[in-house]
Amino acid sequence: MADTPMSDTLVLLPGLLNDAELYLHQREGLADLVDTILIPDLTRAETMEDLAREVLSQAPNRFALAGLSMGGYVAQEMFRQAPERVERLALMDTSARPDSPEQRRRRTGLIELSEKGRFKGVTPRLLPMLIHPSRMEDQSLVDSIFAMASRIGQAGFVRQQRAILSRADSRELLRSVTVPTLIMVGDSDQLTPPELAEEMAGVIPGADLIVVPECGHLPVLEHPERATAALRGWLGA
């Protein structure tokens, strides 16, 4: 990849049931590298296309773009709509693939339960799907995850799930990425496992792949120093 000037604006996209608290460490640890860090609300649209358009309307003409999980889906759709505006791309614990039939059934079932008033956010039973077993007793980490889910709430969760269901297959799209790209994943991520990160890194020319050890689906929270260091290297690439 050709050398790319450092970006003035960094757009950080949260995941499902996450808000700006997800990136607390990164906001502090990357502030000296960019003039502006934008963390949009991803709860206000029900299609991936509309979410991407909304974020693009808030962002400047050119920016660095990073997204985790659902945020990675939005980032890919933003690149589809406006590739010329993305100066560099980071995709963390996400996938270029659409949902499998089983994933669609499970997601649709969660929407139906939530609409019947049975939204539970993130429960202790679901935590092992999100974080590494070694972090299950980290009360500060667990409290942060619960608090973000509570703030997103039932209506926001339903809109997010519908948007995720609407996303396109981005595997061919990623072949056209030529900007500095970072792919990051936790080595124990159960929701978007490392093989999906390897697939994305394999089709993006020159992409850097970082696998965070002893980490689940949320490296920016579970191992914030490692995640921030990786993002610093990407921003300075």
General description of the model:
The protein has 237 residues and is α/β, with parallel strands linked by helices. The protein has a single domain, classed as 3-Layer(aba) Sandwich (Rossmann fold). It is built from 10 helices and 6 strands, in the order βαβαβαβααααβαβαα. The protein has helices at residues 24-29, 48-58, 70-81, 101-115, 127-130, 139-165, 171-174, 194-203, 219-222, 224-235, and strands spanning 9-13, 36-38, 63-68, 86-92, 181-186, 208-212. A 6-stranded parallel beta sheet has the order 2-1-3-4-5-6, with helices on both faces. Strand 5 (181-186), helix 8 (194-203) and strand 6 (208-212) form a beta-alpha-beta unit. The protein is globular and about 45 Å long. The termini are close together.
Could you provide a short overview of the structure?
The protein is α/β, with parallel strands linked by helices.
- The best one-word shape is globular
* Major sheet characteristics: 6 strands, parallel
CATH topology type: Rossmann fold
Can you tell me the CATH architecture? Answer: 3-Layer(aba) Sandwich
Let me know the CATH homologous superfamily: Alpha/Beta hydrolase fold, catalytic domain
Strand content: 5-15%
Helix content range of the residues, please? 40-55%
Number of structural units classed as domains: 1
Radius of gyration: 16 Å
Largest sheet, order of strands side by side? 2-1-3-4-5-6
Compute the number of helices: 10
- Cα-to-Cα separation, first versus last residue: 10 Å
Number of E strands: 6
Uncertain runs with pLDDT below 50, 5 residues or more?
Answer: none
Average predicted local confidence, pLDDT = 94
Structural class: alpha/beta
SSE succession: EHEHEHEHHHHEHEHH
